[in-house]
Amino acid sequence: MSPNRRFLSFERPRRRMVEEQLIPAGITDTRVLHAMNTVPRHLFVDDALLGHAYQDSSLPIGSGQTISQPFMVARMSELLALEGHERVLEIGTGCGYQTAVLSCLCRRVYSIERIAALHTKARKNLRQAHHANVMLKCGDGLLGWVEYAPFDAIMVTAGGFASDVWMEQLCEGGVLLMPEGEKGAHRLVRRKKLVAGIEEEYFNACTFVPLLKGEL
Length: 216
Ligand code: SAH
What we know:
This protein has 216 residues and is an alpha/beta fold. 27% of the residues lie in helices and 27% in strands. The chain has a seven-stranded mixed β-sheet with strand order 5-4-3-6-7-8-9. A two-stranded antiparallel ribbon has the order 1-2. Helix 1 runs antiparallel to helix 2 (30-38) and helix 2 (30-38) crosses helix 4 (97-105). The structure holds S-adenosyl-L-homocysteine. S-adenosyl-L-homocysteine binds next to strand 2, helix 4 and strand 4.
């Protein structure tokens, strides 16, 4: 990171991202808009992409992975409808940006990344951005995180098909949100675990990097 970068606030571009991209695109949850206006996205992207940090696009973060576009981060956060008391499991830490946004919206975030280099990068980024209510693990998120289960919500930020253990690791009333489907044709699905069964709703079409087995 360039030496001056942490001292640049990027407040203006961040506010414009909220006012000119997220609100017109239909994000209405004020807690989510506040989090998006607070988390310094520029601390989560590589130096060469600093000038693009607040554009509404996904960006490369190394190891062939991407940081999701701000709209998708906001939309997925909004669909979890967090109130502040929840414990949330995230699958796919990447650079830690979505983790940081979630950490503003709930009590604690547990986040798993399968690629060791990204896990290390996220730890550094989250420390720099002062997000303390976060626990990170390098491993296969398809296995969930049984030691800390059950969770109030699980957010998956890689596209594919759900692992059975995720529903098992949710509280009653808990919600799983993920981009589901074959490569290049994902759709956000939200499944709520109820005593009587599972309630399922489909939302935006989207494209995510693939959910893969094992750790690297
Ligand atoms: N939320 C991230 C998005 C990263 S892209 C951000 O804001 O930057 C999705 C991430 O999911 C990638 O880093 C990829 O390595 C990771 N991933 C894919 N399959 C996984 C699995 N089974 N367990 C954990 N992480 C996984």
